[in-house]
Design goal:
mainly alpha, 2 domains, 164 residues, 0% strand, Four Helix Bundle (Hemerythrin (Met), subunit A)
Length: 164
């Protein structure tokens, strides 16, 4: 096993394990903090793909700003008060069944697909190429993401606002 493959498996395990903590933790603050190792694992995967610019952006935006924004929203709302309110979710078994079915489907497709093994070169991920991608073919996705973030921020402000 090469060092690159070992690094991939370690980073993938880190990303999946911390993602599992995010989903299963009963404390919302612990879930938000567990996002950081997940984001850093994805950053490592970007480095393995020689996409250093995306790795830097991943650290700056996700591991830094988005995590701080999530913690800020938790503290503004009543999620960070430390009060243990019993939460019930009747849709847990349905969600688990759908997740298991999707896992089986993805594993089946991945193992039964004839993946090409030809040697090729990766495209150059320069800042100019990423900018052309964002403002060209992916403009709707880029603008849609900004609208989702804006609506999330407005929703957090509305939720945190005190009633008079």
């Amino acid at each position: 096993m090469t060092g690159e493959a070992l690094a991939f498996y370690v980073l993938a395990a880190l990303t999946l394990a911390s993602g599992l903590v995010v989903v299963t933790s009963p404390n919302i603050v612990h879930s938000a903090v567990a996002l950081v190792p997940s984001f850093l694992g994805v950053t490592g995967l970007y480095v393995l793909l020689n996409a250093e610019f995306l790795a830097g952006i991943q650290i700056l935006i996700y591991a830094g700003a988005i995590t701080v924004l999530i913690l800020f929203v938790i503290m503004l709302t009543e999620g960070g008060t430390g009060m243990r309110a019993r939460q019930r979710n009747e849709q847990g078994p349905i969600g688990a069944a759908v997740a298991a079915a999707m896992a089986v489907l993805l594993i089946t497709v991945a193992t039964h697909t004839a993946w090409p093994r030809g040697a090729g070169t990766l495209p150059a991920y320069t800042t100019a190429a990423i900018g052309r991608s964002f403002l060209g073919a992916n403009i709707l996705v880029f603008e849609g993401t900004s609208i989702v973030l804006l609506v999330s921020l407005i929703g957090a402000i509305i939720i945190a606002r005190k009633e008079e």
